[in-house]
Amino acid sequence: xxxxxxxxxxxxxMQPLSQALQEYPEVxxxxxxxxxxxGARPPREVVQMWTRLGYxxxxxxxxxxxxxxxxxxx
Length: 74
Known about the structure:
This protein has one domain (2-56). It is 31% helix and 11% strand. It is built from three helices and two strands; from the N terminus they run H-E-H-E-H.
């Protein structure tokens, strides 16, 4: 969260790419390549987060419901 907030403060967009870090047969090659690129040696050294970082179009805040929509009258 801190990294994403810092990126936003600098005008950057950050998108997590967590599927490449999951240990499924379908992404085994990507998992191994990411660790190889970073010099990490599983199981002792494991990459916890992989993201795309760069400049993207501005995105407005997500719509939120008001408190009244959360409270259920009984």
